[in-house]
Amino acid sequence: SDHMENIYGYLMKYTNLVTGWQYRFFVLNNDAGLLEYFVNEQSRHLKPRGTLQLAGAVISPSDEDSHTFTVNAASGEQYKLRATDAKERQHWVSRLQICTQHHTEAIGKNNPPLKSRSFSLASQGSANSPGVQRRPSQNAVSFFNVGHHRLPTGKRVPIMQPDHLVDVREMMSQAEGQQRDLIRSIECLPVSGHLTSLDQDLLMLKATSMATMNCLNDCFHILQLQHASQQKGSLPAGTTISWLEPKISLSNHFKNGAAQNFPAEINKPASVREEQSTAEPCQLTREPEEINPEDELEDISDDKEDDLGAVEEQRSVILHLLSQLKLGMDLTRVVLPTFILEKRSLLEMYADFMSHPDLFIAITNGTTPEERMIRFVEYYLTSFHEGRKGAIAKKPYNPIIGETFHCSWRMPKSDVTTDAGGNLSAHSSSEQVTLSKDLENQTEVDYYTVKFVAEQVSHHPPVSGFYAECVERKMCVNAHVWTKSKFLGMSIGVTMVGEGLLSLLEHGEEYTFSLPCAYARSILTVPWVELGGKVNINCAKTGYSASINFHTKPFYGGKLHRVTGEVKQNTTNTVVCRVQGEWNSVLEFTYSNGETKCVDLTKLSVTRKRVRPLEKQGPFESRRLWQHVTESLRDGDIDKATEHKRALEERQRNEERHRAETETPWCTKYFLKEGDGWVYHKPLWKTVFARTQQTDTN
Question: Which domain holds residue 655?
Fold first, then answer.
């Protein structure tokens, strides 16, 4: 009660994107439970410009900074406010929370909660009955009757105590049963007619009801933990309050979101039968294969992912899928519809991050440790633009365990930067294509070769290993990445767990680095990609490090794809380079001597990778393995692509089941497990060391 005094003062209020933040005079009326604001203090005697009822409101300090907080009223209206400092924010937040709690409890005492709700589906009858025939003006939601059972007059329900959690669980079980009946009734509707099981309103109703029940289950779980903490005095050690695992099993037989019924084996295309009948891995050679660079030809494929129509046409499929997902759910084992796939494997996507081999090779040409670290940061930040194909957020194929991808790049030695602060955009894209064609007539000493190999070393969890080397410059990079994807509501987040190691053997330096998270946003409309999170690059020998922040777009204002970073010398804590800009557009580097350099990534030259033709590739190499899926996607035949994709996935499941039954461990081909990571079986640092020892012996 001591804290229930009325308070007032100036706060900044966010109005809209045009007007932005404006100073307003706010008054907390504790007696009425209102938050009011005026243009200024002088107009306080006039009618308030705005008023929020605080009963049932949620007061939330913002993660954006230490000054901002939001007031979310039960009506759905929201005030986004900003105090002058953290102390003032805490003062307002605490007073608002006390007032909110007081008036919320008062309403709860005067208005006991409803005892239950019932959901019933209108009688369907036959396909021609009035219950099924829907008038054009009748929407799907009105097809369902939602009723409330009021308590008998005079009876009051006491305020719920922790002991009543058993009753709550029973009521929730009833609600879950009714929700399952609702889902079953929708799915039993005919697939054609005025009201179908794929009606967008009904799919949205399925998704909403599913999300509601999942949210209630999570809230109940938190209540149980709080009850346990009250009994024991505190939460048990190690206890966390987080999203629960999904209780609803997902079907593994999605065909654009619907159940698949495939034709008999005799009617399947020969390519599908071939995919399913490929021999077990134990019958295939798992010995490392030496790839002859002379067999590789310049890649001429150009699979841009700019087709937005398919996503919009498949909106009902996405809704169907969303109705079976829950916030925070791991999507590793979820079979996603085929139309969202891009026409390449994840292993090839990692290769495309190496599309600027000139910048990669130029790292070791730096004359000082500082220059080499800066060059690595420049290369690192320019790699993501080409790694993404097109603006639309599509997903690469999930690699099959044992799948591999090989390629290489040839780079004229004259095009590799040797001087400090060289020009990052020495050639345009058109000039680069001409240069790469001229390489065919050059001798071996005229160009550097960068070789790349990637392998899917694990299925659960999905872990990829990749390795690249330039023998002439005695440099290589080894990395392993575990992709963890989660459903975040209207977006999907992918965390890249793992670590990379760049070795510059000429200098005896090793650089460790990590990868940012990726997000597919607006998955119900036109999905787009953004990167987020903080990554670090460190060189223990030289004491130089880099910290890079990929900024996700804030809810209000802000730029897309923004990135900032700095390179520093850890011993002296001196910043030697700063970078800012967009990772898919223009980057600006500012050096310690005051000089600046801008890099337009859209004009940066791209060196085409060299890949062996399909007929020379092994059965588990990415392009040959996924060739029928890729061809079907190019032809726009989603059903056929789905069939080929399912055949590959079914084969992988059968092989995994066979290995489990025979207790046969999976043997990798190119990468070996070392601790928590995976290392290429013949890295350059081992071969160079072996040669050095042999020379010393001779």
Answer: 297-417+446-527+600-684
